[in-house]
Write a structure and sequence with these properties.
The chain has about 270 residues and is of the alpha/beta class. The protein has nine helices and seven strands; from the N terminus they run H-H-E-H-E-H-E-H-E-H-E-H-H-H-E-E. A seven-stranded mixed sheet has the order 3-2-1-4-5-7-6, with helices on both faces. About 50% of the residues are buried.
């Protein structure tokens, strides 16, 4: 992520977090009536610097299951990412706010299965997220770095594809704009940011569906908070600057995508 706000790990199904300082206050899960408007001040428990380290570790370890169900990255890989890659060269991808590293691990396995050479860099400014991601078994072509996206821009780095997972709902105003500006400079072919869509039925389904699972972690409580913070499809489309396309992916996903002219023909609709 970009800027001073991005300092903590991720949330249910999410990436790096932005909640620190005066915003770091403990909040209880909301009622459904609070979903009419986005709640950017809501803070997830795992973003607090004094959160339970064992619950945090369990949350990172369980993210792969949440992301495999709610994030839609298999579909995103097939429709949007894979068409940008070539079997005749080494391809590159940057995951901004990679958290525990489960999404780049999935992408690395799919690319290898498809016979693609893909080098993936996952960045997250939070030491706890970086430590967990780096501690997992190594995969060819996958590396993690503790860094902001702005640092990579300053270094002049570029990647074929830039992605993030569940980062956008942590951003407002200048933070939101900074992430997209960094993405434009870092991504030479495609930038794709995936996030949750805020809805009452999505909130209710996540609340009920996760109730019997994920003991000893922050996934259920912080997942509900993430939904409160998330944009609706209309809100995300209104916030997107020129050159970015907002896509609603049913049942509960929003995408914000930017393609470089000349690299759009392979994308599957």
């Amino acid at each position: 992520m970009s800027g001073e706000a991005s300092t903590a790990p991720n949330k249910a199904g999410g990436r790096g977090s932005l909640a620190q300082g005066p915003m770091a206050r403990r909040l209880t899960p909301p009622r459904l009536r609070s979903l009419a408007e986005r709640d950017p001040a809501a803070v997830e428990e795992m973003d607090l610097p004094d959160c339970d380290p064992e619950k945090l570790r369990r949350t990172y370890a369980q993210f792969w299951l949440i992301n495999s169900v709610v994030s839609g990255w298999r579909r995103n890989y097939v429709r949007y990412l894979r068409p940008q890659f070539s079997s005749g060269r080494t391809n590159t991808l940057l995951d901004i706010g990679s958290g525990g590293g489960d999404v780049p691990r999935m992408l690395a396995r799919w690319a290898r299965r498809d016979g693609l050479r893909l080098e993936i860099t996952g960045i997250d400014p939070d030491a706890r997220a970086h430590e967990f991601a780096s501690s997992r078994p190594a995969l060819p072509g996958l590396s993690f770095r503790r860094a902001f996206s702005s640092e990579l821009v300053d270094e002049g780095r570029t990647y074929d594809v830039v992605i993030s997972n569940h980062v956008l709902h942590h951003l407002t105003g200048e933070q939101f704009s900074a992430l997209l500006t960094d993405s434009e400079q870092l991504g030479s072919r495609l930038s794709l940011h995936c996030d949750i869509e805020r809805s009452r039925w999505g909130y209710a389904l996540f609340s009920v569906g996760t109730l019997p699972f994920f003991p000893g972690s922050f996934i259920r409580q912080d997942g509900l908070t993430s939904i409160r913070r998330s944009y609706t499809a209309a809100e995300l489309a209104a916030a997107a600057p020129p050159g970015w396309q907002s896509l609603q992916q049913h049942p509960w996903q929003n995408l914000l995508m930017r393609t470089t002219p000349g690299y759009t023909s392979g994308i599957k609709g």
